[in-house]
Amino acid sequence: MGESANGERRVSGPRLFAIVGPFQSGKTTLLECLLTRAGALARQGSVRDGSSVGDSSAEARAHAASVEANIASVEYLGDRFTFIDLPGSVEFAHEARNVLPLCDAAIVVCEADERKLPALRTILHEIEELGIPRILFLNKIDQADLRIRESLAMLQPASRTPLLLRQIPIWQNGIVTGFIDLALERAFVYREHAPSEVVDVPAGELPREKQERYTMLERLADYDDALMEELISDIEPPRDQIFDDLTHDLREGLVAPVLIGSAEAGHGVTRLLKAMRHEAPGISRLRDRLGLAGDGPALAHAIKTIHTAHGGKLSLARVLRGGFSDGAMVKSAKGEDRVSGLSRMMGLAGSKQGKVEEGDCIAFGRLDHVATGDTFGDAKAGAPAAAFAAIAPPQPAHCIALHVKDRKDEVRLAAAIAKLADEDPSLSFVQDQEAGELRLFGQGEMHLRVALERLAARFGVSVESHKPGVGYRETIRHPVSVRGRHKKQSGGHGQFGDVALDVAPLPRGEGFIFSETVHGGAVPRNYFGAIEEGCKDALEKGPLGFPVVDVSATLTDGSYHSVDSSDMAFRTAARIGVSEALGKAGPVLLEPILSVAISTPSEALSRITAIVSGRRGQILGYDGRPGWEGWDVLNALIPEAEMDGLIVELRSATAGVGSFTKEFDHLAEMVGKTAEAIVAHHNGTKVPAH
Question: What is the DSSP string of 218-279?
């Protein structure tokens, strides 16, 4: 295709396409169909029976859902396409955040289902923010209950960009039997798992075809004055001009074309492939979007890390400039590596390559200094600057505490989770010393369940999980004066320390403050540091069994022995004194309260309010979510003890799209039976009877 009036042409060279869409919209089935139609597969596999290229991991097949990005490369009519099928569940959305910025275009798989509109809106919003050209594939058209215009009207609120209908279905006895391409002005009759057959536009469909085609041209004319003049003058525009406009408007993100079909039956897929081939931009447009020069040393960016059982670490990367060869030295900001194998991926299988060109998406072997999100290049040119700003993983939404079934697996557990977090940075692992717990953080219940399944299946580490502990604290209500004395004689030098302390409560959030008002050298100054440390020792576990906060200790008096006094003796005396004081000063339990900001579609706000209230939450107010029409952010204070499982409830109430961020706000007093039960449970005692 030559240069068009808009300066657009069909590009050559490898291209990368993301396949995105709501949960269970048919993305993996579409990938399978695209691969089959392009000739990469002899027969289309099925997600249902576990024979698809995508969702080939044991975890994906066990849950019948995508739980990681699936990659497949194919040659089609002389062009190389790599498709990345991205999970639809919000719990695995971070997979997409590292992939999408490097894609030339996105295929958004959707259906006319109101329940999935919130998820579609979330996906489209992210793509729109990144400026990625997108084509909507309206799937399951053979199961449609609505007319195409009704479907389009339902879908349009999810997109900030006008949806441009490119095809209309042909109905026969209430069944969709084919479609009319409005740009080509041709009709196609569906054939099961085969390219559609070209036929004349049925006479009864001509008026509808003319009307819908004119609507499409009107939209294109919004961005093409010459076309607008032709329409006003009732001049039929040349077909090449229409395709030039379609190409230009897609690449500029002015419209989101809508094609129809059925991935399950293989309907409409050839037209989708040809639209991507002719109209989607290539690597030069991506470099422009990223602000990268076209000239310069070889450059690539890692979009996913895979740890294989036998091949070691693979870094799936998009080659942004130049080319790479097997055995070449590459460098990132973290260090230098030698490429140990280049593989073009087809699901979990890889085909070895000697070299790769710009635009390709390829797996680099054993790049130890390259993590997901890193830019690397020719080592001779030094470490390159990042292709774009690092994408921070989202704040964890769910947490479980782990313990290994076999103690000898503890070291292996840490190493295995490190590899899982390398593959999926939205997982994190913390050893909480205070609670004595290993904690795994992630984006939801399913996200963490899949992580545990991978631990067992891939690394042979079996763990048990339970609800993590809460960071309770305690403080005191009244000031107390005490004497702490430590005296011990056991041959030779003894131990002697004697302190008088005033212990008092502090305002919430003040922590611990130590001071002294000793006069006349009753306690030598060189022991003050040891006395402060002794006070802190006593605060590690108060009379209720929790760390003590917001307390002051003032050294007012004491005595010492010129021979037997020591730092250790005074530290012990201070610990004894403060421990006694805490028990007398009205100890009270404190629970952590979190400030929580919940993002939700506006229609679910009342349900979210009820959920927060049911968790002892205090509603602070709500406001519109910036940049998200039809969304709100609810601000609330919620006890940490009530956060477990919150994300599960939120997602249930918001069709899977609700999310939240949280941060510690303050500690609040707890009294009564609830506090007594917490203390009793923590200390392994019975709740006192009332």
Answer: HHHHTT-HHHHHHHHTTPPPPHHHHHHHHHHHHHTTS-EEEEE-BTTTTBTHHHHHHHHHHH
In the chain, the N- to C-terminal Cα span, in Å, equals 87
Residues of the chain with pLDDT under 50: 1-5, 690
CA distance 77 to 277: 9
612 close to 646: Cβ distance less than 8 angstroms: no
Q: What is the pTM of this model?
A: 0.90
Burial of 357 by CB count in 10 Å (0-12 exposed, 13-18 middle, 19+ buried)? middle
Helix, strand, or coil (residue 432): strand
Which residues have a Cβ under 8 Å from the Cβ of 361 and sit 6 or more positions away?
Answer: 14, 16, 71, 73, 82, 84, 102, 303, 316, 317, 318, 319
Residue whose entry in the numeric block shows the structure tokens 């904690």 = 439
Q: Which of 156, 166, 101, 106 is nearest to 134 (CA)?
A: 106
pLDDT at position 193: 81
Q: Give the number of residues written for the chain.
A: 690
CA distance 545 to 540: 9
State how far the Cα of 149 lies from the Cα of 155, in Å rounded to an integer: 10
Closest CA to 641 of 673, 594, 595, 589: 594
Q: Contact, 622 vs 633, CB < 8 A?
A: yes
Residue found under tokens 């295929």: 107
Among 500, 581, 515, 589, CA closest to 552: 515
SS3 of 622-668? EEECCCCCCEEEEEEEEEHHHCCCHHHHHHHHCCCCCEEEEEEEEEE
pLDDT tens sequence across 146-195? 899 999 999 999 999 999 999 999 998 888 999 999 999 999 999 988 88
Other CB atoms within 10 Å distance of the CB of residue 380:
11
What is d(CA 144, CA 219) in angstroms, rounded to the nearest whole number?
Answer: 25
Taking each helix axis from N to C terminus, what angle separates 528-539 and 567-584, rounded to the nearest 10 degrees? 40
Cα separation values, 200 from 174, 176, 521, Å: 20, 16, 108
Strand partners, 106: 18, 134
Q: At what angle do helices 445-459 and 410-423 cross, to 10 degrees?
A: 120
- Is residue 311 within 8 A of residue 293, CB to CB? The reply is no
Is there a contact between 135 and 166 (Cβ–Cβ < 8 Å)? Answer: no
